[in-house]
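User: quick one, fold this
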Amino acid sequence: MNCQRCGTPLREGEKFCPQCGTPVIVQKQTFVVRRMPVLLIIVLTMGFLISAFIFEDGDANLAVMLSCVPGIILMFLIYRMDRIEPEPVGLILKLFLVGAFIATFLAGTIESLLGMFIDFLFSWDPIVYSFMEAFVLAAATEELVKYQLLKSITWKHPAFNYRFDGVVYSTMLAIGFDIAENLLYLADNALSTAFMRAAFPGHCVFGIYMGYYYGQAKSHELHGDPEGAKKMRRKGLFITILIHGGYDFLCMLGSISDSEFAQIIIGLLLLFVMVALNVTAYKNIKKYAYYDSPV
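Assistant:
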């Protein structure tokens, strides 16, 4: 735990910050209050996913709202979690816009070119093709593009002075990418797609993992360990691609299966994965914010 005013690490039981003297306020919460956000996440995830199977078509305005509102809400929530030293609003908006426009354009262009090679080399087997499409075409391409843009904008920025800043930067860029991608998907899909994507704000979840290791890497760099920083950045990128690719691959398996029983099993597994990743992302980002410290 750190002081909410100056960020100084606090020992258990301390009533005042040893650096600035700010009183330490510890709020006791009941079990219901502690678990309410998790229960709400589970209910919303299941509700959106079930709605995706019930409402095939519907109002276009509702579809747009479902695609944009969750990301915008997440932006404000994550920004508010950065309580010790909130990031410059201009930098936050820049990351969001870069994710929405530049990252989606670059990733889309690379995916179009790379997709031709994957179609040519792996179209002989639908499972192998889906694997390459999920892990290489989608996950690796999109996460590498987002990472390179994130690093070019924030790595040397003077505001990057706390570990949690890495999570804030990564998720802001990812949410911009997510909203833009959702709107592009809606151009050719029905309302059910909007419900499906609202159930799992994937890029935000992926951005939390990348941002955690990105913040750790910055700490290594400033403590004279550039090799450790590189390892942390690579680790964050690898884990993000693994989670992203695994989720996409599971979605694709459900769409290519001819067995109704297999589709049901994959659908239930997908529901479990969505709920697990959403809940884990919430718990992780809350923990990262709570134990934030200077780099």
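User: anything notable?
Assistant: Residues 29-33 have pLDDT under 50 and may be disordered.
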